[in-house]
Amino acid sequence: MLRLSFSSSPQFPSFIFAAYKQIAAARYTFSPFCGSNPRPEEAESPENNSSTGSEVVESICNLLKQEKLPTFELTGESAVKRLTLTLTPEHVLNVISGLNDAELGLKFFRYTKAALKFKHIAATYDHLISSLLRAGLNESARELLEDLKDDGYDISCKTLMEVVTSLATTGKIDQALDLFEKAPDFKCSLSLVCYNEVLNFLIEKGSVDKALGFFKCQLCKNVSPDSYSFNMLVKAFCSVGEVKECFKVLDMMKSHSCRPNDVTVNTFITGLCRVNRVDEGYRLLRQLHTFKHYRPNVYSYTAVIRGFCKQGVLGKAQKVFNEMIECRVRPNLVTYNVLIDGFCKEGNIDEAYSMFRKMKNGDVVTYTSMIDGYCKAGKTNDAIMLLHELSERGMAANAYTYSVMINGLCKENRLSEAHDLLKQMKERRIFGGSFIYNMVIDGYCKVGNVEQANKIFEEMKGRDRGCAPDKRTYTILIYGHCMKGRMAEAVSLFHEMFRVSCVPDEVTVQALVTSLVKASMLDEARSVIFTLLAKGITPGLSSCSSIINYLFRQWKIEDTEQWTKLKEFLDKKS
């Protein structure tokens, strides 16, 4: 009797026989392992052989997933001869692919190579490496590259770069660079695209120094850099404010006979403006008119206009805009939005409106800037008209648009209209932050209408809002109740803060304790203070230490842990 198992017969491991046995049940009248004859029409059919192969692969996958690796006893070697299908490297690839489990696939791969002496095909390596990378098993994937080399295969750029990029993405920059430098050992011929890809991820990871070192020591020595290579360096130096280095990059471009393109210049100008060197960016912009192969475009002009707007120099921004029109460069939506926002922040709403009407089609950003400008200028009715116009033109206001409008209404005590906009947001399922509700609640509290403030507070906590009150919300309400002499409600809100894990700050504590003392509610004030001490929230007591000293003299001294903590706190403050 012949026993086949992993140890006794590595050529036919037990789980493969198990797969064959499952398939054989459908192909033989009796078990082929007991000497029965196959059906003639099936034994000679090539199609059946192909079908059997796919079925065996599926069965092996199922057995591996179930971790069932049984052994079987055969009655004679003739049974082995009846197995017309043998396991091939192609079947191994199909099994690994069908497993959808990188770690299990690797185990199967290792076994078939060690026990069955398989020389796996390159496609198996490529598929398994990709699977391991997707599963985050970067080290295993890197080890497979070594196996691929040992089996005499050349490694493709695609496969090598997949491993390099995966290592870099997980923060293993040094390992990624080390593997990339070993490309010649793998007989992998790297193209400029590969070098640019490494340069890009170094820059994206913020490793500007390593990017420059890689550029000089690797890229320039092995390939000829192109405009894209230099543009990435310019972008990298601009992002860290090293504009001087950008000029060096431009000189390097000349030495490599590489001409700056639109991206180079736009990136350079934007970088100058970002580090507040807008005048230099503007000079470079004007110099471009003398170049034969380059003309400033809308991105160049917009970068300079944005820079001047951030500096608050709207006169220069307007001048650049006019030059842009004279040079027949058409402003885009971003250009107009930058200028309109600048004029609105400066308070020049008339100039902003003039620019607004020059546009053919504004967007929600344009309208929001104008609405904000009108509200700040005290022209809230004009802002409301623009909000309606925005809707009439088929554009939906966003949460920020509503917040700007609600803020303007609250400043003019038009609280009912502000509340109506909150309701409109709810109807349109626009979920803003708690700060939008806080503006309306604060407005009602300031006019003494705490009942309406409470109502909005409850609306805010509704399940369909998804907007929980924050520390600011509670502080506004506590202060509002105190101003109305509703101390019980204020204390209740104070304790509710702890139930919803919202820790009161110094502003909250000072408002409540001061109000309680003024109302001669000393016991309630003591309760609040001891609650804070018990929870270890002493920072909230810092702002009212003088009041606590006063209360300490008024209360009867008790030899308790609370009094001890309070005395320690006062001693530290003295």
What features would you describe in this structure?
With about 575 residues, this protein is mainly alpha-helical. The chain is built from 32 helices and 2 strands. The chain has helices at about 15-25, 40-45, 45-65, 80, 90-100, 100-115, 120-135, 140-150, 155-170, 175-180, 190-205, 210-220, 225-240, 245-255, 260-275, 280-285, 300-310, 315-325, 335-345, 350-360, 365-375, 380-390, 400-410, 415-425, 435-445, 450-460, 470-485, 485-500, 505-520, 520-535, 545-555, 560-574, and strands at about 1-5, 70-75. Strands 1-2 form a two-stranded antiparallel sheet. The longest helix is centred in the N-terminal third of the chain and has 21 residues, at about 45-65. The model is unreliable at about 1-10, about 25-50 and about 70-85 (pLDDT under 50).
